Amino acid sequence: MLHHGVRLLVAIATFTIGLAVVWTLQLDRFWKVNTSDVSPVILVDSAADTNEIYRLLIQREFIFNYKIELIVLRADTTGCPMYEDESVRTKMDHIQTFHDMLKESMPEALPQTLDTYLAVNQSSKPLRVANLGISYVLVKDSDLPDDGIDRFWTKFYKKFPKSPGILFFSDIGFNDRHDQAFVYAGKTCGGLCGEGEYVLLRKVNGKWEIQKEHDLWVS
Question: What is the domain partition of the chain in residue ranges?
Fold first, then answer.
Protein backbone atom coordinates (compact mmCIF):
# COMPACT_ATOMS: atom_id res chain seq x y z
CA MET A 1 0.00 0.00 0.00
CA LEU A 2 2.84 2.35 0.92
CA HIS A 3 4.64 1.63 -2.34
CA HIS A 4 1.45 2.31 -4.26
CA GLY A 5 1.15 5.70 -2.56
CA VAL A 6 4.76 6.60 -3.38
CA ARG A 7 4.30 5.65 -7.02
CA LEU A 8 1.17 7.83 -7.17
CA LEU A 9 3.02 10.83 -5.76
CA VAL A 10 5.89 10.34 -8.23
CA ALA A 11 3.40 10.17 -11.13
CA ILE A 12 1.64 13.35 -9.99
CA ALA A 13 4.97 15.17 -9.61
CA THR A 14 6.16 14.03 -13.04
CA PHE A 15 2.90 15.16 -14.66
CA THR A 16 3.10 18.55 -12.93
CA ILE A 17 6.69 19.13 -14.02
CA GLY A 18 5.89 18.11 -17.61
CA LEU A 19 2.91 20.45 -17.71
CA ALA A 20 5.08 23.32 -16.44
CA VAL A 21 7.71 22.66 -19.12
CA VAL A 22 5.10 22.60 -21.89
CA TRP A 23 3.48 25.80 -20.58
CA THR A 24 6.86 27.54 -20.46
CA LEU A 25 7.64 26.55 -24.04
CA GLN A 26 4.25 27.83 -25.21
CA LEU A 27 4.79 31.16 -23.44
CA ASP A 28 8.23 31.43 -24.99
CA ARG A 29 6.79 30.86 -28.45
CA PHE A 30 4.03 33.40 -27.77
CA TRP A 31 6.34 36.16 -26.59
CA LYS A 32 9.25 35.51 -28.91
CA VAL A 33 9.54 38.23 -31.58
CA ASN A 34 10.99 37.56 -34.97
CA THR A 35 13.26 40.62 -35.23
CA SER A 36 13.75 40.06 -38.94
CA ASP A 37 10.10 40.99 -39.48
CA VAL A 38 10.25 44.21 -37.47
CA SER A 39 11.42 47.47 -39.02
CA PRO A 40 13.97 49.38 -36.95
CA VAL A 41 12.53 52.26 -34.95
CA ILE A 42 13.99 55.56 -36.09
CA LEU A 43 13.89 58.26 -33.45
CA VAL A 44 13.88 61.76 -34.91
CA ASP A 45 13.58 65.26 -33.58
CA SER A 46 12.16 67.32 -36.43
CA ALA A 47 12.62 70.64 -34.63
CA ALA A 48 16.28 69.91 -33.85
CA ASP A 49 16.98 68.70 -37.40
CA THR A 50 15.29 71.76 -38.88
CA ASN A 51 17.26 74.15 -36.71
CA GLU A 52 20.54 72.37 -37.41
CA ILE A 53 19.92 72.70 -41.15
CA TYR A 54 19.13 76.41 -40.92
CA ARG A 55 22.22 76.92 -38.79
CA LEU A 56 24.38 74.99 -41.27
CA LEU A 57 23.12 77.02 -44.23
CA ILE A 58 23.62 80.33 -42.44
CA GLN A 59 27.10 79.44 -41.29
CA ARG A 60 28.23 78.08 -44.66
CA GLU A 61 26.28 80.11 -47.19
CA PHE A 62 25.89 83.53 -45.64
CA ILE A 63 28.53 84.22 -43.02
CA PHE A 64 31.30 84.77 -45.52
CA ASN A 65 32.74 87.96 -44.06
CA TYR A 66 34.16 88.61 -40.62
CA LYS A 67 32.40 91.99 -40.63
CA ILE A 68 28.98 90.34 -40.54
CA GLU A 69 27.69 90.47 -36.98
CA LEU A 70 23.94 90.19 -37.44
CA ILE A 71 21.65 87.95 -39.47
CA VAL A 72 18.29 89.36 -40.53
CA LEU A 73 15.74 86.63 -41.23
CA ARG A 74 12.28 86.86 -42.69
CA ALA A 75 9.95 85.88 -39.87
CA ASP A 76 7.87 83.61 -42.10
CA THR A 77 8.85 80.73 -44.37
CA THR A 78 8.59 81.05 -48.12
CA GLY A 79 8.87 78.68 -51.04
CA CYS A 80 9.68 79.57 -54.64
CA PRO A 81 6.31 80.02 -56.44
CA MET A 82 7.85 80.39 -59.90
CA TYR A 83 8.76 76.69 -59.77
CA GLU A 84 6.33 75.27 -57.21
CA ASP A 85 3.02 76.97 -58.07
CA GLU A 86 1.65 75.62 -61.35
CA SER A 87 -0.29 78.79 -62.17
CA VAL A 88 2.74 81.01 -61.60
CA ARG A 89 5.00 78.59 -63.49
CA THR A 90 2.66 78.68 -66.48
CA LYS A 91 2.55 82.48 -66.54
CA MET A 92 6.35 82.58 -66.52
CA ASP A 93 6.58 79.99 -69.32
CA HIS A 94 8.42 77.43 -67.21
CA ILE A 95 7.57 74.26 -69.08
CA GLN A 96 9.22 71.78 -66.73
CA THR A 97 7.39 70.73 -63.62
CA PHE A 98 9.02 70.99 -60.21
CA HIS A 99 9.72 67.25 -60.10
CA ASP A 100 11.01 67.03 -63.67
CA MET A 101 13.41 69.93 -63.16
CA LEU A 102 14.89 68.40 -60.03
CA LYS A 103 15.01 64.92 -61.51
CA GLU A 104 17.58 66.34 -63.94
CA SER A 105 19.54 68.59 -61.61
CA MET A 106 19.21 66.60 -58.37
CA PRO A 107 18.63 62.94 -59.26
CA GLU A 108 19.64 62.03 -55.70
CA ALA A 109 16.52 63.76 -54.32
CA LEU A 110 13.91 61.17 -53.39
CA PRO A 111 10.37 61.79 -54.69
CA GLN A 112 9.15 61.35 -51.12
CA THR A 113 11.43 64.15 -49.91
CA LEU A 114 10.21 66.50 -52.65
CA ASP A 115 6.56 65.63 -52.07
CA THR A 116 6.95 66.37 -48.37
CA TYR A 117 8.64 69.67 -49.19
CA LEU A 118 5.72 70.76 -51.37
CA ALA A 119 3.21 69.63 -48.75
CA VAL A 120 4.77 71.56 -45.86
CA ASN A 121 5.17 74.70 -47.97
CA GLN A 122 1.61 75.04 -49.21
CA SER A 123 1.29 77.99 -46.88
CA SER A 124 3.69 80.27 -45.06
CA LYS A 125 4.33 79.73 -41.37
CA PRO A 126 6.51 81.28 -38.65
CA LEU A 127 10.19 80.47 -39.04
CA ARG A 128 11.44 78.55 -35.99
CA VAL A 129 15.12 79.06 -35.26
CA ALA A 130 17.41 79.16 -32.23
CA ASN A 131 21.11 79.08 -31.36
CA LEU A 132 22.37 79.97 -34.83
CA GLY A 133 25.90 80.77 -33.72
CA ILE A 134 25.46 84.47 -34.51
CA SER A 135 23.14 87.25 -33.43
CA TYR A 136 19.93 87.31 -35.44
CA VAL A 137 16.61 89.09 -35.70
CA LEU A 138 13.34 87.98 -37.28
CA VAL A 139 11.57 90.66 -39.31
CA LYS A 140 8.13 91.09 -40.82
CA ASP A 141 7.25 93.51 -43.61
CA SER A 142 6.07 96.00 -41.01
CA ASP A 143 9.60 96.05 -39.52
CA LEU A 144 11.17 97.09 -42.82
CA PRO A 145 11.42 100.54 -44.43
CA ASP A 146 8.46 101.53 -46.60
CA ASP A 147 10.35 103.31 -49.38
CA GLY A 148 11.52 102.93 -52.96
CA ILE A 149 14.18 100.35 -53.66
CA ASP A 150 17.19 102.68 -53.26
CA ARG A 151 15.99 104.42 -50.12
CA PHE A 152 14.81 101.09 -48.74
CA TRP A 153 18.29 99.60 -48.67
CA THR A 154 19.88 102.78 -47.35
CA LYS A 155 17.47 102.77 -44.44
CA PHE A 156 17.73 99.00 -44.04
CA TYR A 157 21.50 98.98 -43.56
CA LYS A 158 21.24 101.97 -41.27
CA LYS A 159 18.79 100.01 -39.12
CA PHE A 160 20.62 96.67 -39.46
CA PRO A 161 24.33 97.49 -39.91
CA LYS A 162 26.86 94.69 -40.40
CA SER A 163 24.22 92.35 -41.81
CA PRO A 164 24.34 90.63 -45.24
CA GLY A 165 20.81 91.72 -46.14
CA ILE A 166 17.63 89.72 -45.59
CA LEU A 167 17.82 85.92 -45.51
CA PHE A 168 14.82 83.71 -46.13
CA PHE A 169 14.05 80.01 -45.93
CA SER A 170 11.26 77.64 -46.76
CA ASP A 171 10.05 74.99 -44.39
CA ILE A 172 12.07 71.79 -44.78
CA GLY A 173 10.93 68.59 -46.44
CA PHE A 174 12.27 65.30 -45.05
CA ASN A 175 11.99 61.70 -46.17
CA ASP A 176 10.51 59.16 -43.75
CA ARG A 177 13.92 58.02 -42.53
CA HIS A 178 14.92 61.61 -41.81
CA ASP A 179 18.28 61.17 -43.51
CA GLN A 180 17.50 63.43 -46.47
CA ALA A 181 16.21 67.00 -46.48
CA PHE A 182 15.27 69.61 -49.08
CA VAL A 183 14.93 73.36 -48.58
CA TYR A 184 14.66 76.63 -50.49
CA ALA A 185 17.08 79.30 -49.26
CA GLY A 186 18.14 82.72 -50.39
CA LYS A 187 18.86 86.33 -49.63
CA THR A 188 18.18 89.79 -50.95
CA CYS A 189 20.75 92.46 -50.27
CA GLY A 190 20.15 95.34 -52.68
CA GLY A 191 18.54 96.46 -55.91
CA LEU A 192 20.71 94.11 -57.95
CA CYS A 193 21.92 91.88 -55.16
CA GLY A 194 20.29 88.59 -54.28
CA GLU A 195 20.05 84.87 -54.96
CA GLY A 196 17.84 81.88 -54.39
CA GLU A 197 18.57 78.17 -54.51
CA TYR A 198 17.29 74.73 -53.68
CA VAL A 199 19.52 72.76 -51.33
CA LEU A 200 19.57 68.99 -50.86
CA LEU A 201 21.08 67.68 -47.65
CA ARG A 202 21.84 64.27 -46.21
CA LYS A 203 22.47 63.06 -42.69
CA VAL A 204 25.76 61.23 -42.22
CA ASN A 205 26.78 59.82 -38.84
CA GLY A 206 24.16 61.96 -37.13
CA LYS A 207 25.22 65.22 -38.81
CA TRP A 208 23.64 67.11 -41.67
CA GLU A 209 25.74 68.02 -44.68
CA ILE A 210 24.99 69.75 -47.97
CA GLN A 211 24.77 67.19 -50.77
CA LYS A 212 23.81 69.33 -53.74
CA GLU A 213 22.65 72.84 -54.66
CA HIS A 214 20.55 74.08 -57.55
CA ASP A 215 20.70 77.79 -58.35
CA LEU A 216 17.30 79.25 -59.20
CA TRP A 217 17.85 82.96 -59.67
CA VAL A 218 20.43 85.68 -59.10
CA SER A 219 20.34 89.45 -59.35
Answer: 2-37, 46-218
